[in-house]
Amino acid sequence: MIDACSLEKKRLLTLQEALDSITTQTARVTDTETLPLTEALGRVLAVPLFSPINLPYDRNAAMDGYAYSSAENALTLTLAGTSWAGKPFVGQLQPGECVRIFTGAVVPPECDSVIMQEHVTVEGLFIHFPADAPPLQNVREAGEDIKQGEQLCQAGKKLSAYDLGLLAAAGIENASVLRKVRIAIISTGDELTELGQTLSSGNIYDSNRYTLNNLLSDPAFSVKDLGIIPDDPEHLEKCIRLAAENFDVIITSGGASVGDADFVKDILARCGTVSFWKLAIKPGKPLAFGNIGRCQFFGLPGNPVAVAVTYEQLVAPALRKLSGAKELKRLRLHATATSPLKKSPGRQEFLRGIFSQDEEGELRVTSAGRQGSHILSSLSRSNCFIVLPAESRGAQIGDTVIIEPFDLLF
Ligand code: AMP
Ligand code: MG
Predict the structure, then answer these.
(1) Which residues surround ligand 2, an ion (CB under 5 A)?
(2) Which residues, 6 or more positions from 237, have their beta carbon under 8 angstroms from its beta carbon?
(3) What tens digit of pLDDT does each residue of 306-336 get?
(4) 32-54+145-178 in CATH: which number?
(5) Can you give the pTM of this predicted structure?
(6) Which residues contact ligand 1 via a Cβ below 6 A?
(7) What is the pLDDT of residues 125-151, one digit of tens each?
(8) Does domain 333-405 have CATH number 2.40.340.10?
(9) What are the φ and ψ backbone dihedral angles of 166, each rounded to 5 degrees?
(10) Across-strand partners of 357?
């Protein structure tokens, strides 16, 4: 059986074509702000940062033990003092001497080696070394991690906990980051009901704003929930026009198709420019993309799973680019299907899957359940998309398929 939606008169756009079109029309934000490191997690670095100091700052010990010169011939050296972390040995080491040293403490300039304390015998002030003590061990050279002036992080880096640790190690207190991308989300539909209100027949609770709000939970974004707007074209247009003046991006869900109550595309055409696509993907066929002045507009389909797929595949890459972060790809892996996967040829399909790893490290994936684009429970159960190409006729148990684990980008 051929997928009915693929039999449209006009060729459906591939996901890649849509993505290319969206990303070429997306410009990075340029305004910056300076933040202390404590507020910089997840923000996008505006300029590269260079280290004002060597890392490590000093030559120091990698072990607790004894610092000595490998030029010494004697197997017994005399203890001249101690170098503590934060309290270096002061004085000049004489030939025949060594220094008690602890991890992170400055290695005296006369020394080039540290022997582990477990490898020596201590007899008062006399330290007996083994004949086969390997020289030049356990010394961390100044600047061996990062040299003074070397780059710590490049512009466009979305600052991670590890980045912030690195910057702190270099003594950097503040970072210049790109401003947050301002995003407004709107749900449209006469049937949509707010949480807390009683549901009447024919109505549904608005779930898409909860999905979107949380998918958008990112320190590089500031998100405003503009609520539910009914299928009233005048009111919807007024809200969209106003939002376009105040946000970088508007994301709507619902009303994006070509039914009598689907106004989003026409409103976008009246207010700005529209690229309306029927995409060759399932779920997520209709998508209205365009701009109103400087504001980018994504009119997503209403079905909750279509929202998830179009957000992940099209909106998220555009938002990452807009935020100034460097381009990331979704990780795709091969996994063995452990349940049959039904599909008709026609559109690229994103099935909800549950992947796991067996004892040999092999990835396996099973369908997360019913695959209708309104089935939220299988979306909630899933931990990956199973990506089946347009021409695929599904998969049998034992077939290798491509999966995209959620949240794995590189
Ligand atoms: P539409 O794109 O407006 O034709 O909506 C397609 C389907 O998605 C319909 O079944 C809607 O009731 C449903 N839908 C639209 N908006 C939402 C929403 N915010 N939350 C949950 N379901 C929605
Ligand atoms: Mg609707």
Answers:
(1) 189, 254-255
(2) 263, 267, 270, 271
(3) 999 999 999 999 999 999 999 999 999 999 9
(4) 3.90.105.10
(5) 0.93
(6) 187, 189, 191-192, 204, 206-208, 253-257, 259, 262, 301-304
(7) 999 999 999 999 999 999 999 999 999
(8) yes
(9) -65, -45
(10) 363
